[in-house]
Amino acid sequence: MFVGGGSQPMQVAVRTADLMSQDSESSTSNPGSGSRTQELKEIIMADVANKQPESVDGKFYVDDQCIDCDLCRETAPENFKRQEDGGYSYVYKQPENDDEATQCQEAMEGCPVEAIGEDG
Ligand code: SF4
Questions:
Q1: Measured in angstroms, how far is the CA atom of residue 32 from the centroid of ligand 1?
Q2: Taking the model in full, what pTM does it have?
Q3: Which end of the chain is more exposed for a tag (fewer CB within 10 A), N or C?
């Protein structure tokens, strides 16, 4: 499995996770600071406006942040495929049963750059 493809997107994801971790720690002492976590999630989450054109209509999609790491295609092979010319993943079939829905959810949660959305 290829992970990374250049270290910058991975560093961004890891750094953002660090910031969110710090935020949750500070939230313990200041319960009103949760808005920072929400802001960070909004910055890194997939954006349906940037959906890859091959992604079929429906709940799940891949946006233009994909770094072609292969995780989603291995986790949910019935739903994600690689766009060979562009070097990115897209949703070619929305989940049609509980197993596929679970796999798509796992792929979304595991995507290192938050390129998978579920609000399509
Ligand atoms: S959508 Fe995410 S998990 Fe799938 S190949 Fe792209 S970066 Fe990897």
A1: 33
A2: 0.70
A3: N
